[in-house]
Amino acid sequence: MIDLDGRLTEVTGHPERQLRHLRISREAGGIGLDGDTLDLRRLAPAVAARYAAVADHARAVPEGRAPVTEPGEEARWLVDSLPGAAAGFGTVGRRWSRRGGVLVRARFLQMTATHTFQDHGPVLDTVIRIRPADGTPPFDAARRLTVPMDYLAVLHRTREVVLYAAANGGSFVVDWARTNLLAGTAGATVIAPDDEEIPVGGGVRR
After folding, report:
1. SS3 3
2. Same domain, 115 and 146
3. Which of 46, 102, 141, 186 could bridge 180 with an S-S bond, Cβ 3.0-4.6 Å?
């Protein structure tokens, strides 16, 4: 975060500080989450003042960074302290898969806050670039989505998302369980033919 006087304040990896930022963004609305740095000099004075108060508090009462034991562990540690349901690995319905539905990769291009907050995360206006499974050119789609807090916590390192796609390509739904797996906020285990258990998650091994 760039303060009103140009000073930098680190937010990522500091759970209390990051939660304060999320609350301000939720209450203010209309703040684009499309970059790694929030410049207070570009915000409305009243909103900028609230963020600046967080920076002042951070300098007065320093908060240690989340402990890191392996790549990606910092994000998972922060996710554990957020409100809402824990990230998990889900299943695909048989009816959907039998009709030819597939999973496709996509990426958030834009995420903008609204004034609505659900139990497990804020409602955001998003623009998603979808990469069809059949190799046709990617295209962009605008969607209003409830984005889980655990995914918001890792926006500093990924914007990839997994979608359920209908067989005819006419509809796409975010698969948050597999998106969490891709982002590294949830884990899964593959059992090989020789019974070896291979952990997967965060795109490290797949």
Report:
1. coil
2. yes
3. 186
